[in-house]
Specification:
This protein is an all-alpha fold. It is 75% helix and 1% strand. The two termini are 39 Å apart.
Length: 407
């Protein structure tokens, strides 16, 4: 676990950025640290202590500031201890104690509000592009695939093959998902699964349930929900559980994180009564200070989970966007080359069969990305979080590489 706070790291980075001759702007630092579009916003959030850069980002920022990551971390650790000592030195007069606690109350309240805003921003961006990729690529592919009779049943890797293969675990999981989707399509063609005609979340949820849990049923479309939340709700109706085993996938992670933001907000709300009072005695001031410290502790404890979310969501969004733009275009080209219905697997020929397999692999990647168990990541202990973070990174990397190589 890191021994420095997000606030301390932000202060150190800002000071080094401004100390450069000439000083760097946030936009210039973002560019030198290889941040993409909107990088200056990320640097601003880091410097304001709203989020901490992940390891690869920290290394890039350190290089841009002509430091090593170890130097940045050490300075941040020193600053964290200095801030703790500073806050431990309470003013002597009650009036000054109240003023200091009120200042901290306002500061933490603003940070909680900003974190909630960032969570909503990233979550909505992901859900928007997820819906588009689901409807325009995944379900469109399913609709076309259902019209092809005689497609071969994919071979599911045997236990021996899984033990001896040199493929990373992410590749094995995604391959298994693609097999599950193919079998669900075969079942849909036979009337056993809710097909694309069922619409949006219900159809996607049915195929996701079949691919992830080996079950399939039908359910009513949930038109009032969007994003992965709609799929999760549909899966609950289908009896297949939530999108990710033991968790709620991307949307569940953002909802959980909103709850993590709400925890310090609740503590602050409890303290708010005392902030509004015109006069306080020493006992009331002590209670206010305890509530504010509890809110600060809640923010600090959720920082790593928040940082993990902010690292994962944009990467997942970019993958979904690529599928939405390039996948739908390739799918439409394939559709125009398909023989007229009724279609058989043999009538497709090699030129039609190869894209089918590619789209099936891409569908497996899309499902794997949307079912990342962020909820468990956010609540994991530090050691478990590191291991889960590696697995999520592997999934995102493999899915991105696979999709770009076949579409």
């Amino acid at each position: 676990m890191s021994d420095f706070s997000a606030e301390a790291m932000g202060l150190v980075i800002r000071e080094h950025r401004q100390a450069r001759i000439p000083s760097l702007t946030q936009e210039e630092l973002a560019k030198q640290a290889d941040y993409g579009k909107g990088g200056a916003v990320s640097i601003s959030r880091i410097e304001n202590g709203l989020m901490s850069p992940r390891e690869h980002r920290l290394a890039a920022i350190a290089l841009a500031l002509r430091l090593t990551p170890e130097q940045l971390k050490q300075e941040a650790e020193d600053r964290t201890r200095a801030l703790a000592r500073q806050r431990g030195q309470r003013p002597v007069k009650l009036r000054d104690q109240v003023a200091e606690t009120k200042r901290r109350h306002a500061e933490i309240n603003e940070k909680a509000a900003q974190r909630s805003k960032i969570t909503q921003e990233f979550g909505e961006a992901f859900n928007l592009v997820h819906d588009a990729a689901r409807d325009k690529f995944f379900l469109r592919f399913v609709e076309l695939a259902e019209s092809i009779s005689g497609a071969p049943e994919p071979d599911r890797p045997s236990e021996e093959e899984l033990e001896t293969t040199g493929e990373p675990p992410a590749a094995i999981r995604i391959e298994a998902m693609s097999v599950g989707i193919a079998n669900a399509i075969r079942g849909a063609a036979a009337g056993g699964v809710a097909g694309a005609a069922a619409g949006g979340a219900a159809a996607y949820g049915a195929f996701a349930a079949a691919a992830l849990f080996g079950t399939a049923s039908t359910g009513a479309a949930i038109s009032t929900l969007s994003g992965v939340a709609a799929t999760n709700a549909t899966l609950a109706l289908l009896g297949g559980g939530t999108l990710a085993a033991g968790g709620a996938g991307m949307a569940g992670g953002t909802l959980l994180l909103t709850g993590m933001v709400a925890a310090p907000a609740a503590a602050l709300a409890a303290a708010g009564f005392y902030v509004l009072r015109q006069r306080r005695n020493k006992k009331e001031e002590e209670r206010l200070r305890i509530e504010v410290e509890a809110a600060q502790a809640a923010l600090d404890q959720s920082q790593q989970g928040f940082d993990a979310m902010i690292d994962v969501l944009p990467r997942a969004t970019a993958i979904m966007e690529y599928v939405n733009v390039h996948g739908t275009h390739a799918l439409e080209k394939w559709r125009t080359r398909l023989p007229t219905a009724p279609r058989t697997w043999e009538s497709l020929g090699q030129e039609g069969q190869e894209p089918y397999r590619d789209f099936l692999a891409a569908a497996g990647c899309l499902l794997a990305v949307s079912s990342i168990n962020v909820s468990a990541l956010l609540t994991a202990e530090p050691d478990a979080m590191r291991e889960m973070g590696k697995a999520i990174d592997e999934t995102l990397r493999y899915a991105d590489k696979t999709i770009r190589s076949i579409i």
